[in-house]
Amino acid sequence: MDVLEYWHPIVSWTGFKQGAVSERTWGYFCQLVQLCHAHGHWQKAAQEIRLAPSRPSIYEPESKYQRNKRRHEWKADIERAEGHMHRAAFLAAEKIADMSYLLTKDDEGKPDWNMYWALRLAVRHQPNHTQARCKAAAFETFDADAELKGDPVEAARRWLLAAGYSSDI
Questions:
Q1: For the chain, how far is it from start to end, CA to CA, in angstroms?
Q2: Which distant-in-sequence residues (6+ apart) come within 8 Å of 59 by Cβ?
Q3: Mind listing the pLDDT tens digit for each residue in 10-43?
Q4: 44: closest CA among 83, 97, 81?
Q5: How many domains does the chain have?
Q6: Which value, in Å, is the radius of gyration of the alpha carbons in the chain?
Q7: Is the residue at 37 inside a domain?
C-alpha cells in the first residue's frame, strides 16, 4: 500500500465493530477503508491545486521561460496528486479482489460474502478503477452486524446514498 506512504489517514477504529466477519476479511476491509480515505484526500488535493494556479510575482516582470516553468510545475503537482488518487483506487480494487479469494460457495449469505458483494457493488471499481466510487467505502464508523444484515445490494445502496452518490448499482 505504497500510496499510504505519501499520506496516511487517521481512522478512529474504536467506531468499527467486526461482528461475525472473519479476521482475514476484516483485515482486508480495514486496509480498504484506509485506501478509500486516501483516495478522497488525493482527489480533494488535486481539485484544490487545479483551482488555485500559482500566480506570477508582482515585484518583477515574468519572462516566457518563467511563466512556462511555473505552469509546468503546476501541472506536475496536479498529475502527482491524481497519480496518488488513481493508485489508491487501484489498490482498493485489489483489496476487494483479494477478498473474493477468501470466499467459497458455502459462504453465500454469510457476513464475509455480504461484505464482499456490498463493497464490490458500492465501489464499482471495474472495469475502470479511475471511476471507482471509493467515497462509498470511506467509513468513519462501521458495525458489521448491523450493516451486513440482509441483502448486499441494499447495504451497497445505503453506503452510496450516504456518500452522496446516486443509488444506481
A1: 27
A2: none
A3: 999 999 999 999 999 999 999 999 999 999 999 9
A4: 81
A5: 1
A6: 20
A7: yes
